[in-house]
């Protein structure tokens, strides 16, 4: 206690886009939506990892064409696929279980469009590989604003993805939860979770002009994770009760106890 939580730096959205600050918004109307604030303060709920997994029993992801069963099964399927292929990397197994837990947002009143689906950088021109690119952005005012509609937009070349403001969703939220609660997982684990829905980058091959050397070094890890996220989806559902003790052991090792969400 008493140490500064790691997530207390300035919100990049305010650094880059000061017109979105609430003080400026008094005059200019509402530029940005601040309903995500309660989730960035981790005051939503206190619960252990497996309680969050159990919450996803109640969630079917509307954006996923490959899954029509609760997301809790997808968590175990992904984890077990990784465990089979990488038996000696127990932290990676846990990434499989954790990666979509940010979707609890959809059970906390957030609309699914703000929780699931692909992610992409905001404040620059959306690249062609963003899913539904043509229909999604046609009414976006940023594309009429020269500051935000070039390839670089509000960024410097190769600034690094850690300095890029991504569209909000379950990836960024879960990454912030992991940081706030001091998960003792390796950097690769944080990276996989933070960018697993950034398909325009890890699969589409776009946005390389924003990447640092570190981003490119981490890319193969994100792509390795993606194989299991995608291809372990199967209507033959696992015996979750039998798997829980193994994963509880990993949770006790890397992210024990009751966490702040
Ligand atoms: Fe996901
Ligand atoms: Fe997933």
TrEMBL record:
Keywords: Cytoplasm, Iron, Metal-binding, Oxidoreductase. Binds 2 iron ions per subunit. Its main location: cytoplasm. Signal peptide: none annotated. Its cofactor is Fe cation. Coiled coil: none annotated. One of its GO terms (molecular function) is iron ion binding. It catalyses: myo-inositol + O2 = D-glucuronate + H2O + H(+). It is found in: Cytoplasm. The keyword Iron applies. Fe cation binds at residues 74, 99-100, 170, 196, 229. Pathway: Polyol metabolism; myo-inositol degradation into D-glucuronate; D-glucuronate from myo-inositol: step 1/1. Residues 1-28 are annotated as: Disordered. Its EC number is 1.13.99.1. InterPro entries: Inositol_oxygenase. GO terms for cellular component: cytoplasm. It comes from the Eukaryota. Belongs to the myo-inositol oxygenase family. This is Inositol oxygenase. It comes from Myotis davidii.
């Amino acid at each position: 206690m008493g140490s500064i939580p790691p997530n207390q730096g300035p919100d990049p959205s305010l650094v880059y886009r000061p017109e979105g600050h609430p003080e400026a918004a008094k005059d200019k109307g509402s530029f940005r939506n601040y309903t995500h604030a309660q989730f960035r303060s981790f005051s939503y709920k206190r619960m252990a990892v497996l309680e969050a997994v159990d919450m996803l029993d109640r969630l079917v992801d509307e954006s996923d064409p490959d899954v029509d069963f609760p997301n809790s099964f997808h968590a175990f399927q992904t984890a077990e696929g990784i465990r089979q292929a990488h038996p000696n990397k127990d932290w990676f197994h846990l990434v499989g279980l954790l990666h979509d837990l940010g979707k609890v947002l959809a059970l906390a009143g957030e609309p699914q469009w703000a929780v699931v689906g692909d992610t992409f950088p905001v404040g620059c021109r959306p690249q062609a590989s963003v899913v539904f690119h043509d229909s999604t952005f046609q009414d976006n005012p940023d594309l009429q604003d020269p500051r935000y509609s070039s390839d670089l937009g509000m960024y410097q070349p190769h600034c690094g993805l850690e300095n890029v403001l991504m569209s909000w969703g379950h990836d960024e939220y879960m990454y912030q939860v992991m940081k706030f609660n001091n998960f003792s997982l390796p950097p690769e684990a944080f990276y996989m979770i933070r960018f697993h829905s950034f398909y325009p980058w890890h699969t589409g091959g776009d946005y390389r002009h924003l990447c640092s050397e570190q981003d490119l070094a981490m890319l193969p890890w994100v792509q390795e994770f993606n194989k299991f996220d995608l291809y372990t989806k199967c209507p033959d559902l696992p015996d979750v009760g039998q798997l829980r003790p193994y994963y509880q052991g990993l949770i006790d090792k890397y992210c024990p106890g009751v966490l702040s969400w």
